[in-house]
Amino acid sequence: MSAIDQYNYTCLGLIECPVNYRFFAPQDHVQSLHIAIYYLRQDIPEYETDFQGKLGDVLVGGGGGEAPAMRIIMPNTILWATDWERYDHEHPEIEKLYSTYWSPTQSFILGTGFVKLGWNPEEIKIGQWLMEHVVSFLVTKYKDKFADYIGNDDLDYDGSICRLLTDEEDTIWN
Q: How many domains is the chain built from?
């Protein structure tokens, strides 16, 4: 059981992260880590230690029991990425749009996989790179869900590291 399983969510998609190392033993060999993209359907209580979030936020990873979590604050992140004119300019720091709940070791493991997917640590922070890919995926694949917040600005990343769930995966993750 993952930390996320005690809360109300919808899994919107997955990221296949080709990691070199594993988070959990025993596994002889790990080729890919399935990282879920969750839409929160409730506020997360303050006592939760694996992640925080509010109704409507997106979590990448479900915390303890699966990949460590990253919170993407909605709808501000979509506004920041697609509609700079409407974005709340009182909070321009990009780091306020997401929070990571990764230990240094977990960050290293994820980083080895994300480099294989195109992340360049010399060009962009890992959290921003991941956040921008997820936002692009959401804007493209869930346009109706986020239509009120989507502007006309071009996105820097295409979201190609993310994918929709198969029918079989949907029954498992949801």
A: 1
Do residues 134 and 37 touch, judged by C-beta distance below 8 A? yes
pLDDT in tens, 92-117: 577 789 999 999 999 999 999 999 99
SS3 content of the chain, % helix, strand, coil (to 5): 35, 15, 50
Give the neighbor-by-neighbor strand order of the sheet with 98-100: 98-100, 70-72, 58-60, 33-40, 9-17, 162-163
Task: Establish how many alpha carbons lie within 13 A of residue 173's alpha carbon, considering only the half-sphere containing its beta carbon.
Answer: 22
Q: Would you state the structure tokens that stand for residue 76, as one six-digit string?
A: 């501000």
Between CA 171 and CA 139 the distance in angstroms is 23
Tell me which DSSP letter residue 164 carries: P
pTM of the model: 0.91
Domain of 137, in residue numbers:
3-173
Residues 10-38: tens digit of each pLDDT: 999 999 999 887 766 545 555 778 899 99
